[in-house]
Specification:
485 residues; 9-stranded mixed β-sheet; Spore Coat Polysaccharide Biosynthesis Protein SpsA, Chain A; 15 helices; alpha/beta; single chain
Length: 485
């Protein structure tokens, strides 16, 4: 017997939805089209049912969709722009769902931006895909039975986090399967660069959203055995003796335009303790090496050029941290950036003792190349809490800057030899056992400029970064579940 589908489409009026609806009406296995309207005054379209909902992704809306999913499958289109399904796309979605036993299938697709078609691949879902902004694309294709079961597991009522809560519940009972084939075309209106989008979750205006997302994630972690109670190992800070209290670590390759500023911002630090600066110069070829040597008269600067040719940023960090003159605390400074003023290092080190933590994360301000503040401004990550921060860290995509570490612990853990996500991996690993301290005043200026490594990434590189961070979360979640067992 041919499988049937119910299609749910966001509805703001005929002009917006009609092209999508006309395409769906051509499906041979269509059971019903149900319009989701947040305005009860809009006129319905002939041949379609209409439901008035409060918010497209609220708990009530998702439960309503589940309740009206009497067909075999449910297609939920999540955008207000036009959807154009590919040739036999629904047959393919059904076939993979049947073969894989998936509760949800989602696919690569095309996007139309200003009339130009481009590929929009997405990534595989895994245990650690806990980001609330995980990109499934705009077509969510559910096995109705699994959708209903997941909806029945939802305990809380969320205005913003309903879809997030639902897919976490769904992942507990059925696979979420990525079809790496281009099965539809959508119109995309968000044309911001990747470097602008990544900070949406720390925008203060989104705080209410983040509170709900954290609650949903925490509940999920408790249900799957990955939640960690707020019990932390204390730090005595006497594991070893150190000549220096702190070392600033700067890995660098080809940053001739910014390295002098970074060095000066360290050497101008005023502290009550002895510190040094360890620069790992990863075989620069643009004059960076010579610029570093301009500061050779300052005995606090240690300029290292590794013998190895296979080091990423994380590998360079390991070279610096395992150097015999590395201080008790290793403090991060990227070669693009600067410390806000001469007090940053003192503030960061004091936080270790005040908060008894193995890692400290500060607050930074986004600036242009000339260090004028740009949007989104101050990034303070106030979503962190001492009680639940290490659980919520599995949901968010970063912890902040600058980052500083108690060196004996860092020498045990070591830094992944990558050039992306290594700092996030450390944050998760440290928080598994130790409290992470926070500094909520601006101590760091993060510069955005054309050559900045993550100012504007294409979709392939962005997917690679997200896939790696999800893998980091998967490993960490597996470790935490093992601890709880």
């Amino acid at each position: 017997m041919k499988k049937t589908i119910n299609c749910f489409v966001p509805f703001a009026g005929s002009a917006q939805a009609l092209p999508t609806i006309e395409g769906l009406k051509k499906l041979s296995n269509l059971n019903r089209i149900i319009l989701l309207a947040t305005d009860k005054e809009v006129a319905p379209i002939d041949g379609c049912d209409m439901l008035v909902v409060d918010h497209l992704f609220s708990s009530e809306t998702l439960k309503t969709i589940a309740a009206h999913s009497e067909a075999d499958y449910t297609l939920f289109y999540t955008k207000y722009t036009t959807l154009n399904l590919g040739l036999l796309a629904v047959d393919r979605l059904i076939g993979i769902a049947e073969d894989s036993g998936a509760g949800l299938v989602y696919a690569d697709h095309y996007q139309l931006i200003d009339g130009k078609q481009s590929q929009a691949p997405v990534i595989d879902y895994q245990t650690g895909s806990l980001r609330d902004d995980f990109n499934f694309g705009s077509v969510l294709f559910f096995k109705a039975e699994a959708l209903k079961a997941a909806a029945n597991r939802m305990k809380a009522t969320y205005h913003f986090a309903g879809w997030y809560d639902l897919r976490l519940k769904l992942s507990q009972i059925a696979p979420l399967v990525h079809i790496n084939e281009y099965l539809y075309t959508e119109i995309e209106n968000d044309t911001r660069k990747s470097g602008e989008k990544i900070f949406d979750y720390v925008d203060p205006k989104n705080r209410a959203v983040q509170i709900e997302m954290e609650q949903a994630c925490t509940e999920h972690l408790k249900e799957i055995g990955g939640y960690l109670k707020p019990d932390f190992q204390p730090i005595a800070f006497d594991a070893e003796s150190f000549e220096y209290e702190a070392s600033v670590i700067i890995p660098v390759r080809n940053r001739i335009r910014t390295i002098r500023d970074a060095i000066r911002s360290v050497l101008l630090q005023k502290t009550s303790f002895k510190f040094n600066l360890i620069i790992i110069d990863n075989h620069s070829t643009d004059g960076t090496t010579e610029a570093i040597r301009e500061f050779a008269d300052d005995s606090r600067l240690i300029h290292l050029i590794p013998e190895r040719q296979d080091l990423g940023i994380g590998g360079c960090w390991n070279v610096g941290v395992h150097h015999p003159l590395c201080g008790k605390f290793a403090v991060q400074l990227d070669s693009d950036d600067v410390y806000k003023d001469e007090n940053t290092l003192q503030i960061m080190v004091d936080a270790f003792y005040e908060q008894n933590c193995a890692m400290v994360v500060g607050t930074y301000m986004m600036t242009d190349f000339n260090m004028n503040m740009i949007a989104p401004g101050i990034i303070d990550h106030k979503e962190w809490s001492p009680e639940n921060g290490r659980n919520n860290a599995l949901r968010i995509n970063g912890l902040g800057a600058p980052r500083a570490f108690y060196t004996p612990v860092l020498r045990e853990v070591n830094v992944p030899n990558t050039s992306y996500g290594e700092d996030y991996a450390l944050g998760l690993r440290f928080s598994r056992n130790y409290q992470i301290g926070r500094v909520y005043e601006v101590v760091y200026l993060c510069r955005r400029w054309d050559d900045n490594s993550d100012a504007s990434l294409d979709v392939v590189k962005m997917n690679g970064h997200n896939l790696y961070k999800d893998r980091i979360r998967t490993w960490e979640l597996q470790a935490r579940m093992g601890l709880n067992r």
